[in-house]
Amino acid sequence: MSRTIITNARLIGEQSLADLYLKDSLIEGVNLGGEVSHTFDAAGKLVTPAFIDLHTHLREPGQEVKEDLASGLAAAAAGGYGTVVSMANTDPVIDDPGLVTDLLAKAERLGLARLRPAAALSRGLKGAQLTDFAALQAAGAVMLTDDGIPVADGHLLRRACEYAAELGLVIQTHSEEPSLRQDGVMNEGTVSQRLGLPGNPVQAEAVMVYRDCELALMTGARVHIAHVSSRRGLQLIEWFKAQGAPVTAEVTPHHLTLTDETLGAFDPIYKVAPPLRTAEDVAYLRGALARAVVDSIGTDHAPHTRAEKDLDLLQAPSGIANLEVAFPLLYTKLVLDGVLTLTDLLHYFQSGPAKVMGWPAPSLAPGAPADLTVIDLESARPVTPSAFQSKAKFSPWDGWQLQGWPVATFVRGRRVGS
Ligand SMILES: [Zn+2]
Question: In CATH, what number is assigned to the domain containing residue 272?
Answer without folding.
Answer: 3.20.20.140
